[in-house]
Specification:
Blueprint lengths: L4 H15 L3 E5 L8 H6 L4 E3 L4 H13 L3 E7 H6 L2 H9 L5 E6 L17 H5 L6 E3 L4 H11 L5 E5 L16 E5 L5 E5 L3 H7 L6 E5 L1 E3 L3 H6 L5 E9 L4 H7 L6 E7 L10 H8 L3 H12 L2
Length: 297
């Protein structure tokens, strides 16, 4: 059985803590039981501050100013939306380095309602100058991307969730992965949406690009692999976040763009994550229908 992203996070951090003495871990109760060994072994570098999310970010900024590389972890709304002002003022404004690892995206905690949903995280973090955003599609990809970026002197957000692709891909921080090439359209699949996109477009003559680094966006690879003016973007959060980056990358090309993702609306029905996918049109079948209508197939 494949390891979950959350368990991979623990393994990755436990290994890195041995070799990188500047790393420090800050928790707000979430996942404290998973990190019990690390909290016990490194009491000077690993802390559970309790349910104080704004304080969590402020303390992380203080440790960054002292030369540490903070790693902060919680579920999406408690890590991004609740302490957004601290992320803006303490990290973006002061250009501090830190790592922010979320879990639960977009609606893994589906039956808890909007207080525990996290479809808007990438949208609002994209507004912060200098914020890097990573959306891995598998646990192994998280490990690869975190190791590449965690000490690169920038604030970086890692978006984890229960939904994962069944196959690992060769990924690099800041780069799109070319999965296949075609002529009718370019499909950009972000993180865990790749499996749905591959199933939806299995017999279509399209290029498929796999995006695990949302910011900074890899404009060069997109330009080199866009044979068509038709672009389909499939994201696991609020739809359309990467549209401005796509337009900027292909600004000298007339474009048609179809943005598929979580609709910008309150998800007021209760059910499993799979039922939410069905309701809002994020199944492979629904994605295929959107692509066919867009391409007039």
């Amino acid at each position: 059985m494949k390891i979950s992203m959350r368990d991979q996070m623990v393994e990755t951090l436990e290994d890195l803590f041995v070799h990188e003495q500047r790393l420090t871990l800050l928790l707000a109760d979430i996942s404290a039981s998973l990190f019990k060994d690390l909290l016990r072994k490194y009491p000077q570098r690993a802390y559970n501050l309790g349910i104080l999310e704004q304080t969590l970010i402020g303390v992380a900024a203080g440790m960054a100013l002292e030369g540490y590389i903070p790693i902060v972890h919680s579920i999406v709304p408690f890590l991004v939306e609740r302490p957004f002002e601290q992320l803006k003022d303490d990290f973006s404004y002061q250009r501090l380095a830190g790592n922010f690892i979320s879990t639960g995206a977009s609606y893994d905690y589906s039956t808890e309602g909007m207080t525990h949903h996290g479809s808007g995280d990438v949208q609002i973090l994209r507004s912060l100058p200098g914020m890097q955003i990573v959306v891995p599609g598998t646990a192994r990809e998280f490990d690869t991307l975190f190791r590449e970026a965690c000490t690169n002197d920038s604030p970086t957000y890692y978006r984890m969730g229960a939904s994962v692709n069944p196959v690992d891909h060769s990924v690099s921080f800041g780069k799109l992965t070319v999965v296949r090439r075609g002529s009718q359209a370019t499909l950009i699949a972000v993180g865990p949406m790749l499996a749905h996109v591959l199933e939806a477009a299995q017999d279509m003559d399209v290029t498929i690009l796999y995006c695990t680094t949302v910011a900074p966006f890899d404009a060069e690879t997109l330009r080199a692999n866009s044979q068509s003016s038709n672009i389909v973007l499939v994201e696991p959060y609020y739809e359309g976040v990467l549209v401005p980056d796509i337009v900027a990358a292909l600004k000298h090309t007339p474009l048609r763009i179809e943005a598929i993702g979580v609709p910008h609306q309150v998800l007021s029905h209760y059910g499993t994550p799979a039922q939410h996918d069905q309701s809002i049109g994020l199944t492979p079948q629904a994605i295929r229908s959107r692509i066919e209508r867009f391409l007039q197939i």
